[in-house]
Specification:
There is one protein chain. The chain has helices spanning about 10-15, 35-55, 60-75, 95-105; strands at about 5, 80-85, 120-135, 135-145, 150-165, 170-175. It is an alpha/beta fold. The protein has one domain (about 5-10, about 35-175): Nuclear Transport Factor 2, Chain: A (Roll). It is globular and about 40 Å long.
């Protein structure tokens, strides 16, 4: 598997070394984001999806678990969020908290069956690459949602992550899609 990690600092060093003048933007956070923070966010996001399904299966307040998940991982209320869920076709983009909640647990938008209440027992990540630039980062690859019977559903993802004023990394762009199937 290929793995790409690119930082603006490394690119700037190459450009300066080649005699090309550049101006570097200072990150909003004290040190900016790190690849480890991006990985940790993705891992915790997957664990949160598993938790929502588990709470639903056990008869608990899965809507509250989903709302907590969205508040923890998405920048709704702090920054615009561009969210294109995997299983959305009529209302393809979810620009606010209520639309995201509907996608995760159903209820607000007719086509939503509640992606996160499926349930899933694990989320496994295969990252294609991560680009870190100060207080922002992008990551792309595949994530695999394991069903209770042990089968996995492969989904392609792109996350855009921004470090918030309080230093917390949050998702500002999330695009998911099923892999192309030739027809």
């Amino acid at each position: 598997m290929k793995r790409i990690v690119f930082t603006v600092t490394a690119a700037l060093s190459l450009l300066v070394g080649a005699g090309i003048a550049v101006a570097e933007k200072a990150p909003a956070g004290a040190d900016g984001l790190t690849e480890a923070q991006v990985t940790d966010l993705k891992t915790a996001w997957g664990e949160g999806i598993v938790k929502i399904g588990s709470v639903h299966t056990e008869g608990g307040d899965y809507r509250a678990a989903a709302k907590e998940h969205i508040e923890a991982f998405y920048a709704y209320g702090d920054s615009p969020v561009l969210f294109k869920p995997t299983l959305a076709s009529e209302d393809q983009f979810r620009g606010d908290m209520d639309e995201a909640l509907s996608y995760f647990v159903g209820g607000g938008i007719e086509e939503d069956g509640g992606f996160a209440i499926a349930p899933y027992t694990n989320v496994r990540w295969e990252n294609e690459g991560t680009i870190v630039s100060g207080d922002t980062a992008m990551a792309m690859g595949n994530y695999f949602f394991m069903k209770p019977d042990g089968t996995e559903v492969k989904v392609e993802y792109t996350f855009g992550i921004e470090q918030m004023e309080d230093g917390a990394p949050k998702i500002v762009l999330h695009h998911s899609s099923l892999p192309f199937t030739p027809g």
